[in-house]
Amino acid sequence: MAIHPIEYRYGHAEMKAVWNEHTRLSKMLSVEAALAKAQAHLNYIPGGMDEKISLGANKVTLDRVKEIEDEIHHDVMAVVLALAEQSDDAGKWVHFGATSNDILDTATALQIKDALLILRKETAKLRQVLIESALSHKNTVCAGRTHGQIGVPTTFGLKFAIWASEIDRHIERL
Predict the structure, then answer these.
(1) What is the Cα Rg of the chain in Å?
(2) I want to staple 98 with a disulfide (CB 3.0 to 4.6 A). Which of 102, 154, 164, 171 is the partner?
(3) Share of the chain above pLDDT 70, in %
(4) Nearest of 20, 27, 90 to residue 55 by alpha carbon
(5) Does 2 have pLDDT greater than 70?
(6) Which residues contact 121 (CB under 8 A, 6 or more apart)?
(7) What is the DSSP letter of 42?
(8) Exposed, middle or buried, 86 (CB in 10 Å: 0-12/13-18/19+)?
(9) 5, pLDDT greater than 70
(10) What number is the average pLDDT over the span 36-46?
(11) Could you tell me the fold of the domain covering 5-98?
């Protein structure tokens, strides 16, 4: 059940896909697989276990994670147990030395990275609309404003160009 209007009514389709529970699980499993790979590289876990964990990550289903979570009431541990089930003898090395927050924070960072790419793309579209509006209204006169009062006449084109310039700075920050 959705708990926020962005999840079901007002959200952008691509952004909803970044933040849905399937993507969340996928990112958590990617983090667990990357952790195992790094640990195998450093000989913290036996060689080859990382490959089995990575293969297991591709077999975990959201339904199984939810079944486990209903039993144990812990979201991350449900993912760990589901992954361990799918990782054969490597299961005991899943999540080795990690905390729940290690996995959650890293998965969230990956989701934020994906979300920022969408924001950058959509903000660039807005910039283009502002530039087109600046050009189409370059001769449309309007009242200028200064200190909250009407000032020297200006154009809507200039206003749109200023907004486009502000958006450029936002795109740089993204």
Answers:
(1) 24
(2) 102
(3) 95
(4) 90
(5) no
(6) none
(7) T
(8) buried
(9) no
(10) 98
(11) Fumarase C; Chain B, domain 1 (1.10.275)
